[in-house]
Amino acid sequence: MDRLAAMKAFVAVADAHGFAPAASKLALSPSVVTRLVAGLEHRLGIRLLQRTTRSVTLTDAGTRYLVRARRILADVEEAEESALAERGLPTGRLVVTAPMMFGRLHVSPLMCRYLAAHPHVIGELSLSDRNANLVEDGIDVAVRIGQLPDSSLVARKAGSTRRVVVASPQYLARHGIPVTPAELASHRTIQFTALAPFTDWSFARDGQGIRVAVSSQYATNSADAALWHAERDGGLTLALSYQVAEAVQEGRLQIVLGDFEPEAMPIHFVYPTSRLLSAKVRSFIDLAAETCDWNF
User: Fold this and answer.
1) Average of per-residue pLDDT values in the chain
2) Contacts of 183 (CB under 8 A, 6+ apart)
3) Is residue 77 part of a domain?
């Protein structure tokens, strides 16, 4: 039995939650994938997957083995890429993750340009506002916004974005432009909970932090939904400057309280320290530096 092929089959089944979708991803028949996983379980002497007529789930042993199998497969791929890098050709699968809205607006176009320039790379872009575990989830590089906690990840700064308060010009014409954060109490506000999960909004002036309580008529965890409501005169909302750049430029939204903005939030590429910086990751980050202006 080819151990690596069996590991790949097992990881694919675990990711796809089924043998048929895993077989499709691997370009194999379902019977071959079933035989590979069964052979792996037989060799290990443990059951890795719990099968029913409706679903395939991991056993406790399978969950632990999945973490190790991902690392082994990643190391093998890295060794192959390192050898191929001698020719200077990025190759293999490049898995990138990014926050939902930033990924849609900025990382997705970058990935398209990258794949056009490197046809031997297979790209996978996962958009989520959850910070994934890069090693366990088999991710090569992540785009993260905000201060990074101490971790085993290597970070390379790619830009920064500001936290801004915006409203439609029509709303401001009717209700007035707030000059200080305290005036928010007399305005309608829209709570974007992913950025401001509490009822206090943070500001700063002369190096001093300012917190102001707001009472929002509308709360949502979607930046798109919050900004859509703001553009339709729903009130003031707190957002990141990259999220509103186009709407501000086109006059659909207007930034207020600019003198009270807190410190800008950095945008980083991060990747695991346990891995060499492969040719595919290095060339992806270099392309971003050459073609993307991520200082908002």
Assistant:
1) 91
2) none
3) no
The label of the residue with tokens 């801004």 reads 164
Token look-up 């014409």 returns: 173
> In this structure, are 98 and 238 located in the same domain?
no
Q: Identify whether the C-beta of residue 252 lies closer than 8 Å to the C-beta of residue 231.
A: yes
Q: How far apart are CA 170 and CA 154, in angstroms?
A: 45
44 vs 53: CA distance, rounded Å: 24
Q: Which long-range contacts (CB under 8 A, 24 or more apart) does 122-127 make?
A: 122/92, 122/93, 122/94, 123/93, 123/94, 123/96, 124/93, 124/94, 124/95, 124/96, 125/96, 125/97, 125/98, 126/95, 126/96, 126/97, 126/98, 127/97, 127/98, 127/99, 127/100, 127/103
SS3 call for 243: helix
Q: What is the DSSP letter of 221?
A: S
CA distance 293 to 290: 9
Q: What's the confidence (pLDDT) of residue 51?
A: 87
Q: Which of 72, 106, 121 is the last residue of a domain?
A: 72
Q: How far apart are the first and last CA of the chain?
A: 53
What is the number of residues in the chain?
Answer: 296
- Domain end point (choices 72, 105, 129): 72
DSSP per-residue string spanning 59-114: -HHHHHHHHHHHHHHHHHHHHHHHHHGGGT---EEEEEEE-HHHIIIIIHHHHHHH
* Confidence at residue 180, expressed as pLDDT on a 0 to 100 scale: 96
On the question of pLDDT at 22 being above 60, the answer is: yes
Q: What is the largest CA-CA distance in the chain?
A: 73
Neighbouring-strand partners of residue 144: 268
Q: Considering its fold, how many domains does the chain have in total? A: 3
